[in-house]
């Protein structure tokens, strides 16, 4: 079991490096999004519906994944490891995040309009009035936040349950990804059913956000940065996203700012191209550390 779980982590990371994402028509997260979409409307009891959706749909996704991995295990342990690796490939993302951020940073030097357009793949904010430094800030912030959401959280769920069962480990990764997808689709104050998905995501992301901050600090060779970022980590409205963002701001020595919402490491300047490129490298190393740690934890 330990060997198959670690092999699944390695397979998921290798597929991410080679292909970045599964094809859209075959992507389980896209399928899950189609399952969620009909609930994004007005309801007579929106909080009750939101609670039911938040509890039931991630459990459904986890149950399906557990069943598929368990069925593969009846054929051969290697088949189970292969299916679990495919689950991790579908539920984690690093290369696409790094590529998107790198492209946005490069475009801030050559084509600001294109940089604003491409930023939409990373951050949901209105970029129409952002200057080059503000676009780079948004890209760096999104790098840090999405490291936690898109990589560390599902890997952590997988690694924590791997010693118990490979189907449970894969189910945990799927559950975390489903919770995060629900939040990204429904978890807004403007959405009638958004309260429960948002609160569930806050709870699910509490540990991954802080682990991500530590990984960023270690990747930059500055473990004390987590402590230095502690006060700023509480500035954003989210109880979690401030931790990796503030830590990355500290290790880069730059200010990260979303106008009207927060300023992290406020005494610094907004990131230069060199700063932002270093941010991409730091997050890349932090991501590799996350994969390595998950593989080691899954072994035991």
Please explain how this structure is put together:
The protein has 300 residues and is an all-alpha fold. The protein has one domain (2-299). The protein has 14 helices and 2 strands; from the N terminus they run αααααααααααααββα. The chain has helices spanning 2-19, 28-36, 46-75, 77-91, 95-110, 112-119, 132-161, 166-186, 195-204, 206-219, 225-228, 230-233, 242-252, 273-299, and strands at residues 256-258, 262-264. A two-stranded antiparallel ribbon has the order 1-2. Strand 1 (256-258) and strand 2 form a beta hairpin. Helix 1 packs antiparallel against helix 14 (273-299) and helix 10 runs parallel beside helix 13 (242-252). The longest helix is centred in the N-terminal third of the chain and has 30 residues, at 46-75. The relative contact order is 0.15. The model has no long low-confidence stretch (mean pLDDT 95).
Can I get a quick summary?
By secondary structure, the protein is mostly helical. It is built from 14 helices and two strands. It has one domain (2-299).
List keywords for this structure.
mainly alpha, 300 residues, single chain, 14 helices, transmembrane helix, cell membrane
Shape by Cα distribution: globular
Count every beta strand, where a strand is a DSSP E run of 2 or more residues. 2
Major sheet strand order:
1-2
Radius of gyration: 19 Å
Structural class: mainly alpha
Number of continuous helical runs: 14
pLDDT < 50 runs, ≥5 residues: none
Write down the overall mean pLDDT: 95
Largest sheet: 2 strands, antiparallel
Tally of separate domains: 1
Helix fraction bin: over 70%
Binned strand content: under 5%
Order of helices and strands: HHHHHHHHHHHHHEEH
Alpha-carbon distance between the two ends = 9 Å
């Amino acid at each position: 079991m330990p060997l198959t779980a670690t092999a699944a982590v390695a397979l998921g990371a290798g597929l991410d490096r080679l292909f970045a994402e599964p094809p859209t028509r075959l992507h389980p997260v896209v399928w899950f999004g189609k399952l969620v979409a009909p609930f994004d409307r007005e309801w007579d009891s929106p909080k009750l519906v939101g609670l039911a959706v938040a509890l039931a749909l991630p459990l459904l996704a986890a149950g399906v994944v557990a069943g598929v991995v368990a069925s593969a295990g009846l054929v051969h342990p290697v088949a189970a490891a292969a299916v679990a690796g495919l689950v991790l490939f579908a539920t984690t993302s690093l290369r696409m995040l790094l590529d998107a951020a790198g492209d946005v940073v490069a475009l801030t030097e050559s084509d600001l309009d294109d940089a604003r357009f491409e930023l939409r793949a990373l951050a949901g904010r209105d970029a129409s009035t952002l200057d080059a430094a503000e676009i780079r800030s948004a890209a760096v912030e999104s790098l840090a936040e999405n490291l936690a959401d898109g990589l560390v959280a599902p890997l952590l769920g997988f690694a924590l349950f791997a010693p118990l069962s490979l189907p449970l480990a894969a189910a945990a990764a799927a559950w975390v990804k489903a919770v995060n997808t629900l939040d990204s689709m429904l978890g807004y104050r403007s959405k009638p059913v958004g309260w429960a998905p948002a609160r569930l995501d806050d709870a699910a992301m509490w540990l991954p956000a802080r682990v991500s901050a530590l990984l960023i600090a270690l990747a930059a060779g500055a473990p004390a940065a987590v402590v230095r970022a502690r006060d700023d980590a509480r500035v954003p409205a989210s109880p979690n996203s401030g931790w990796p963002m503030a830590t990355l701001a500290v290790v880069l020595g730059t200010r990260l700012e979303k106008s009207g919402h927060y300023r992290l490491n406020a005494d610094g300047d907004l990131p230069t191209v060199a700063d932002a490129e270093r941010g991409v490298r730091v997050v890349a190393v932090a991501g590799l550390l996350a994969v390595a740690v998950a593989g080691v934890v899954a072994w035991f």
